[in-house]
Amino acid sequence: MTALGDLDRDRIRELHDTELAWFRAERPRTLELLARAAAHMPNGTPMTWMASDNDLPVYVDHGTGASFTDVDGHSYVDFNASDIAMFCGHAHPAIVRAVQERVTRSTQFLLPTEESVRVAEELARRYPRQTHWQFTLSASQANTETIRLARAATGRDVVLLFEGHYHGHFEEGLVDLDDGRAAPVQRGLSKGVTGRVRISQFNDAEGLRAALGSDDVALVLTEPALTNNIHFLPPEPGWHDELRRVTRERGTVLAFDETHTHIVGEGGATGLWGLDPDVVTIGKAVAGGIPMGAYGVSVALAGELDHTKDVATGGTLFGNPLSAAAAVAALTEVLVPAAYEHTTALGGMLADGIDAALRDAGLPWTSYRFGPRAGQWYGPHPRTGADAHAMTDPELTRLLRIWMANRGIWEALPGAGPTVPVPAGEADVDRYLTAYTQLLVALTS
Ligand SMILES: Cc1ncc(COP(=O)(O)O)c(C=O)c1O
Predict the structure, then answer these.
(1) 301, 334, 367: which is the final residue of a domain?
(2) Which atom of ligand 1 is nearest to the CA of 228?
(3) Å from CA of 254 to ligand 1 middle
(4) pTM, entire model
(5) What is the phi-psi region of residue 329: left when phi exceeds 0, alpha when psi lies from -120 to 50, beta otherwise?
(6) Can you give the pLDDT of all 445 residues of the chain as single tens digits?
(7) Residues 157, 297: one domain?
(8) By CB count within 10 A, which of 13, 44, 183, 199 is most buried?
(9) Which residue lies with its CA nearest to atom 4 of ligand 1?
(10) Which helix (H) or strand (E) holds 295?
């Protein structure tokens, strides 16, 4: 039996084509806009991902709460939540109010405003070891600056990442294993980038020791649990202790990217598991969907960021008051303990329902749960990124996404699992599970 069980590949393709034809037929206005847009935007979209991740990128009109509505009038419960950036929901009144209030008093001066102090104080409360914070416009940029900081602090060049990682669209972040060798995962990167990156396996302590042994690694950058490209890979017992011990022994900076995992609680997975990184990076939902990234460092590293030391950080719109005002609202009015409890309970309900559907369908897949997020691997529980990579199935994922869209659910990106956004309720989870269960029946009957 393959990891996918005995699924009929022709049936997957046939179902996909039928669903896509139905989807297209009901969206004439989207098709019209895509055709018009193609004259001035490659793929008919303002960014390639909107096309590469979707069989048919719907043009959207508006969003409210847990849902958004396309230009043809179809609504979707948003379980992608823009890959977690919209975890607070669409047009949340607290975010709208904060942005409206700030924008009338202007949005950048290249000078500090009080909102940024409030954000830094709140993030330092959530991540007590990270006493000092800097702001960017995205998590990618927060990770880029973390790499520069670690290089400046250690005088070393190499960045260590784990197979299956994703930390953003910067050079080092786009290197991963291909047939066991580090290689750029996309075109357009500099040829020398692979020499500046080392890839190990998450949960493999021996491999980690070997990779750090030559004392040339400036930074280990990882999510506390891997949540990208490979659905979900949790840490095994003892892994984080070992990671901390070895990085400290070898003089390597340890950074946790909480961009996705911060949705599990006030202090993200770092707080949940009592972890002790040198740097925490964050973005996406931290400002309720307004562009912002941030990184917090320990006191020792904060000294390296003194402007007289001239580490290559900064950007003209970084640290702007609009993003900060949105972040104050997101962190103090939306992402409060009750919101984490609510979404974690619904995430559990989602995972239970996925479990039940898999059992009833007799499929040898396994589910996972992580706070507000759930999902399935197309096979047994993986240990490493390599195991998880072996189970990806683009055809099946494309079918899942278009099937769900036809039933009013915007499914997570390929390689990710559905996430319950803050404004969602039990009825939204029920709707997801009904559509998901119907798909498994269609696949196996
Ligand atoms: C863990 C993690 N870090 C960083 C990023 C980059 O975020 P952005 O594209 O907003 O810069 C992502 C995006 O998916 C992510 O999942």
Answers:
(1) 334
(2) 16
(3) 18
(4) 0.97
(5) alpha
(6) 344 557 899 999 999 999 999 999 999 999 999 999 999 999 999 999 999 988 999 999 999 999 999 999 999 999 999 999 999 999 999 999 999 999 999 999 999 999 999 999 999 999 999 999 999 999 999 999 999 999 999 999 999 999 999 999 999 999 999 989 999 999 999 999 999 999 999 999 999 999 999 999 999 999 999 998 778 999 999 999 999 999 999 999 999 999 999 999 999 999 999 999 999 999 999 999 999 999 999 999 999 999 999 999 999 999 999 999 999 999 999 999 999 999 999 999 999 999 999 999 999 999 999 999 999 999 998 888 888 888 888 899 999 999 999 999 999 998 899 999 999 999 999 999 999 999 999 999 8
(7) yes
(8) 199
(9) 167
(10) strand 293-297
Tokens describing residue 226:
């891997």
Is 311 within 8 Å of 303 (Cβ atoms)?
no
Distance 140 CA to ligand 1 centre (A): 6
419 DSSP 8-state letter:
B
- Which residues line ligand 1 at a C-beta cut-off of 6 Å? 83, 138-140, 166-168, 223, 228, 257, 259-260, 283-284
Amino acid at 346: L
| DSSP secondary structure letter of residue 427 | H
Q: Kindly give the interhelix angle for 337-361 and 426-444, rounded to the nearest 10 degrees.
A: 20
Total H helices, total E strands in the chain: 15, 15
Number of structural domains (the chain) is: 2
- The best mutation among 52, 87, 145, 228 to test binding of ligand 1, ranked by most ligand atoms within 8 Å of the C-beta, falls on 228
The CATH number that applies at residue 25 is: 3.90.1150.10
| Final residue before a domain boundary, out of 290, 319, 334 | 334
Q: How far is the CA of 392 from the centre of ligand 1 (A)?
A: 20
Which domain range does residue 416 map to? 9-78+337-444
Residue 430 and residue 342 in one domain: yes
Q: Are 116 and 286 in contact (CB under 8 A)?
A: no
How far apart (Å, rounded) are the C-alpha atoms in residues 229 and 247? Answer: 25
Assess whether 392 and 324 both reside in one domain: no
